[in-house]
Amino acid sequence: MKNLSNNFLIPMPHVNDPIFKKSLIYICSHDKDGAMGLIINKSISDLKLKDEADSILKETKLHQINPKPNVYFGGPVDLNMGIILHPLDYISKKTIKISNQVGVTSDSKILKDIALGKGPSMFRFSIGYAGWSDGQLENEFENGDWLIAPSNSEIIFDMPDEQKWAYINNQLGIDINDISGHGGFA
């Protein structure tokens, strides 16, 4: 399977796990060791965890920013880890470049820089990530669990979260609810 970094993963309708149902996942890395991505359309406040989001913002000093940023649920792995997805107008020693436009940074320096107004022009602050071990994502593709779509930074940073799912489905030219994702014999 080709490297899926810098693409979106879209779960098929039969994926009933509430974490992934109607999630849009941006793949940050994909190699022989596995894959890592961030759910980009589910803020913690939308998941009825507003108090937790406020606590995280206070702990990271990002509550001082106006407007107050959203905290996103990046996925179920390592919920103690904060990850900043951002354009490459900000780069530090810890930034991992995903594409020519987007990078990811996870350290205290970026949090301080954002709070001081010296960080990236836009960002998505996620807690946790979606992760797959070697071959796991490939097996899930064989099972028909995912569709892949090209990403772009406008969808990630500019589009309202509640519009992302419908927009991606329209871009695919199909109603994802009309396909099962299960194989069969004719």
Descriptive overview:
This protein is of the alpha+beta class. It has a single domain, classed as VC0467-like (3-Layer(aba) Sandwich). It is 23% helix and 28% strand. It contains 5 helices and 9 strands, in the order βββαββββαβαβαα. It has helices at 50-60, 108-115, 136-142, 153-157, 161-172; strands at 7-11, 25-31, 34-39, 71-73, 77-87, 96-97, 102-105, 124-133, 146-150. Strands 1, 2, 3, 4, 5, 6, 7, 8 and 9 form a 9-stranded mixed β-sheet that branches. Strand 6 (96-97) and strand 7 form a beta hairpin. The longest helix is centred in the C-terminal third of the chain and has 12 residues, at 161-172. The chain is globular and about 45 Å long. The mean pLDDT is 86.
CATH superfamily: VC0467-like
What portion of the residues fall into strands of 2 or more residues? Answer: 25-35%
Rg of Cα set: 17 Å
CATH architecture: 3-Layer(aba) Sandwich
Uncertain regions: pLDDT < 50 for 5+ in a row?
A: none
Question: Which features would summarize this protein structure in a list?
Answer:
186 residues; VC0467-like; 9-stranded mixed sheet; 5 helices; globular
How would you summarize what this structure contains?
The chain contains five helices and nine strands, in the order βββαββββαβαβαα. The protein has helices spanning 50-60, 108-115, 136-142, 153-157, 161-172; strands at 7-11, 25-31, 34-39, 71-73, 77-87, 96-97, 102-105, 124-133, 146-150. Strands 1, 2, 3, 4, 5, 6, 7, 8 and 9 form a nine-stranded mixed sheet that branches.
